[in-house]
Amino acid sequence: MADHLDQLENLSIHILREAYANFKSLCMLWSVGKDSTVLLWLARKAFLGHVPFPLVHIDTSFKIPEMIEYRDRLTRQWHLDMIYGINTEALERKETFPDGKVDRLRCCKLLKTEALKNTLSGAWPRYRFNHSADRYEVDPNREPFTGVIVGLRADEEGSRSKERYFSKRDRLSEWDIADQPPEFWNQYKTDFAPGTHVRIHPLLDWTELNIWEYIEREKIPTVSLYYDQGNGKRYRSLGCWPCTFPINSTAKNPREIIEELRSGQLKNIAERSGRAQDAEDGGGLETLRREGYM
Amino acid sequence: MNPAADEKMNIVVAGHVDHGKSTVIGRLLADTDSLPKGKLEQIQELCRRTSRPFEYAFLLDALKDEQAQGITIDSARIFFKSAKRHYLILDAPGHIEFLRNMVTGASHAEAALLVIDAAEGVRENSRRHGYMLSMLGVHQIAVLVNKMDLAGWSRDAFEKIADEYKHFLQEIGLSASFIPVSGMAGDNIARRSERMAWYDGPTVLEALDAFIKEPLPVDKPFRMPVQDVYKFTSAGDQRRIVVGTVETGAVRTGDELIFYPSGKKSRVKTLERFGSPPPQVYEAGQAAAFTLEEQIYLTRGQIAARAGEPAPEIGRRFQVHLFWMGKEPLRTGKDYLLKVGTAKQPMRVEAVLSVMDASDLRMKSGQDFVGYHDVADCILQTARAIAFDLSDRFPTLSRFVIVDEYEIRGGGLIRKVLPDAEEPLRQRVMQRNLKWAMSTLSREQRWERYSQKAALVLITGRKNVGKKTLARALERKLFAEGKLVYFMGIANVLYGVDADIKTPGPDTSHRPEHLRRLGEVANLMLDAGMILIVTAIGLTQSDLEIIRAAVDSDLIEVVWLGPDMTDIQADLQIDNPDNPDEAAAQVKRLLQQKGIIFSV
């Protein structure tokens, strides 16, 4: 008898395989956080040990250093086709929140949304890991990605709960919440007009608790920032260091995090409560997401 | 911990606009302590600040848009847990233009709550949604007669609505339980109402927990639409792995499988899994992966079934029951795409038999289109034969959707398979494939060795436009580039393979059989890995279908040379036949585009 994690796993694998079969130019976003790492693990299961499409990471230059080390470690170890994109111009002009020139939302828009859109479309340079040279190099291939796999979950916040498994984005990467195609049974939107792309969400039905249960069951390697750093603090969700803060917690491993989520101090507390940009205005994240944010 | 506490069930909440779906859900979340800490207080505070009366519905309206318009736009997902199990509530909005969201929610649900306003009574969407639930296969339903506070907690008001709607559900073959509730006041949601002592049935929470988790259909015949065949040889992996999600039944090592519509047969060699030892069995609901003993040619869209179990249907004309959600009506003669299982085929509506308004079950006939939100019986025709099941036998693979201009705009069930011209031919081809002596070399192995895919290049056009000249120029060009290529003159078949049927004179009655034999000869050459060039005069679409039915390959490229084309759907039309070298270069570009030849 399959348990609920098996059910979630089977549906996610089905969706990943549908994406691979239907999109010629496919990529998967990898933020190196717990959700997209579970997604990466599921991809290896779906494709029997391989990840047959590139992983795309948007580097804001403000990621906690351990995240980048972890990303490159797994890239080598699992032989991943790794690409990163970055908003070099905004960084050079110091148009960032840590530099004090723009507010948090504007910073997110420039360093994440703009970098993501232009990396996906191929308008800006992409840096691809060359395994034989063991370094990132400018990728001559600027082909736009028409299918983009993303590890978001419906329980994260309101606007994400409205997503489809296969969700269309227009030429400007914008999302029209009021005009979404139906998803019947297991038939998804896999046809798209030229110039548009589809975002694919295999983790939509997973909850934060499911993610940790699965990490524990499958023994998936995760960034150590999720666990008590020896000072009674850990990160519940990872982002840029100026805007993401650790919570008080002594959980040292997935088992203890699961306990915390099931019945402990985190029961019924929203996951993203440690993210400052969400608090800027009531619909901050929704505004960002309509414009193309993950 | 309760052993079943990890059980999960998807529930859709449907109903007419403003009948109180969001209020019922908000109340259910609040009364079962399922809300994030502070959420209730936060919304109450917001209402105080904006001088609006608090409503439980606001809890769901996480989006700015919704707060502004006071409506729920999409089928939001809400997680909620009872003492018995986890629920994923798919909140389906009632606004008529958002029916596609309701359909999305309902087609992933195992049971439904249908909300009807006690004061307003049964409305068009109450009936339409009921009808959709039945078509989508949701058969466990609880009807909540809501806003009983506004109906004076009256038993008569409740029973009047319950009787009317029960009658409607009976007409469409559904049954349901009925619960009088007030989302606003919280009566009979999570706690029993004292104001409706006359009601002794379950509360909503109890009704949810009473829904039965239906077992996965593991005891039905094995069905697995082929999602893909994986070969990661460039990564040093020699396995050739067939993948797909098992719809019904189960598959084990050693099982003999038949793939439809081709009729190809093979035995399961190994079940495959990454990260843990392979399982003993893959069964319904599981994302399966396996290798095969024999190297048969498989493509996405075929259905795997077990030898000795009932086979799926095969056809390209069928009678269906469908509903349409496109603003533009579904029309006869227009080109669409049909998706069933993992198959996708160009499709046309041959005839609209009858049209029904799902909100009042009124039937219309004699129209040749299906309008927005109508339900209809139609005859559909796909470009090529596909495999499927019939809705009254194994509904899962009778379910299809229709794609119009990149969007899914309709869906339905296949009820009956109808005869088509190529059916006898398909039977013979299936027999051939069942008997086919298998090489130990796979098609892909040959393709890798020859650096080309096998393909049939059909050059057709009117008399004396230079078809043979082009064929020879193309043959020379590809041969010079190291390709395995062969030009087969039509006379080579006519006077040899066709010697017994070729009669002198203008008699053309042997033409279909001639084309079939041509197809069979081509099939052998393609199996050997050849790029085969054939010329024929004035081929039509139906001629092409005969050849297609006999050739076990997707790789048939049709080139029409010269003007005055028949109804054939050509991959390339060459207007100027006078320059054979230029024309040959054009055909070569086509073969490169289609990935048949790779080198420059």
Structure description:
The complex is a heterodimer of chains A (about 290) and B (about 600). Chain A is about 30% helix and about 10% strand. Chain A is α/β, with parallel strands linked by helices. In chain A, the strands form 2 sheets. An 8-stranded mixed sheet of chain A has the order 5-4-3-2-1-6-8-7. The mean pLDDT of chain A is about 85. Chain B has about 600 residues and is of the alpha/beta class. The longest helix of chain B has 17 residues, at about 155-170. Chain B is elongated, with a radius of gyration of 30 Å. Chain B is built from 14 helices and 29 strands. The model of chain B has no long low-confidence stretch (mean pLDDT about 90). In chain B, strand 11 and strand 12 (about 265-270) form a beta hairpin. The interface between A and B is large, with 54 and 61 residues.
